[in-house]
């Protein structure tokens, strides 16, 4: 039985130990716990990403709609279609992200 150092707290521990007795650092790679932690982290990152996209979509909608409104744009002005197009894309994108969020929160 060899003695090794814990990569986390540097305590001297058995090389066969699955966990550091000092700090609880997991020495086995790819254990169930690690995989679970990884999954939860990925899920968290996904939720963050959907959140950011929701914010961006909302911004796109507000800017597009606000621009068209305040500039009093009318068809057939190109700006009108650009502004309303952005607003429409922002709106649909926002809805898509709401659905994605609901689905993400349902899945474990
Ligand atoms: Zn340790």
Describe this structure in words.
The protein has a two-stranded antiparallel sheet. The protein folds into 2 domains: 1-29; 31-106. It has helices spanning 32-70, 78-106, and strands at residues 3-5, 12-14. The radius of gyration is 25 Å and the shape is rod-shaped. It is mainly alpha-helical and 108 residues long. The protein has 2 helices and 2 strands, in the order ββαα. Bound molecules: zinc ion.
List strands and helices in order, with pairings.
Elements: E1 3-5, E2 12-14, H1 32-70, H2 78-106
Antiparallel strand pairs: 1-2
Helix pairs in contact: 1-2
Residues 6, 8-9, 11, 20, 22-23, 25 line the site of zinc ion.
The helix content is 55-70%
Whole-number tally of structural domains: 2
Sheet-strand content, in percent, reads: 5-15%
The unique ligands bound to this protein are: zinc ion
Work out the radius of gyration.
25 Å
* Number of β-strand runs: 2
- Gap from first CA to last CA: 40 Å
Overall average pLDDT: 89
For the report, how would you describe the main beta sheet?
2 strands, antiparallel
Secondary-structure element string: EEHH
Structural class: mainly alpha
Shape: rod-shaped
Low-confidence parts lasting 5 or more residues at pLDDT below 50? none
* Neighbour order of strands in the largest sheet: 1-2
Number of helices: 2
Quick description:
Helices cover 63% and strands 6% of the residues. It is mainly alpha-helical and 108 residues long. It starts with a strand and ends with a helix.
Name the features.
108 residues, mainly alpha, two-stranded antiparallel ribbon, 2 strands, 6% strand
């Amino acid at each position: 039985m060899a003695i090794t150092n814990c990569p986390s707290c540097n305590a001297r521990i058995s090389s066969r130990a699955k966990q550091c007795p000092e700090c609880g650092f997991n020495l086995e790679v790819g254990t169930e716990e690690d995989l679970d932690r990884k999954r939860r982290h990925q899920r968290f990152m996904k939720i963050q990403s959907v959140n950011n996209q929701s914010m961006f979509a909302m911004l796109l909608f507000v800017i597009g709609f606000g621009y068209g409104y305040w500039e009093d744009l009318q068809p057939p002005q190109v700006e009108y279609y650009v502004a309303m197009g952005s607003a429409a894309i922002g709106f649909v994108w926002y809805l898509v992200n709401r659905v994605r969020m609901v689905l993400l929160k349902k899945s474990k």
